[in-house]
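Researcher: Please translate sequence to structure tokens.
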Amino acid sequence: MKTIITRNKHYTYSNVFLYNSQNGERKIHTKTIHFLVASAFVPNPNNYEQVTHIDGDRSNNTTDNLKWIPKKNKFVFQGVKFGNFKVIW
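Model: Translation complete:
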């Protein structure tokens, strides 16, 4: 695969677009930077499906700011940035 384009806007996650050409077919894969970083460097012993930014800053993709969470809890962590929810770890 080859990285062609990256995108970062203030209201969304940073993405990488990967293009793969095999047998004359071109496939595009879009991955978020935080998911790729967490997949490579953040342990996931419970096999959770989603990654959240602990401090709510979507541009902070450091390993100490990423945490695997169950899919059903994603809305709670997103609310932390705006102060709508209180999260107890």
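Researcher: Any highlights?
Model: The beta strands are 2-7, 15-22, 25-32, 50-53, 66-69.
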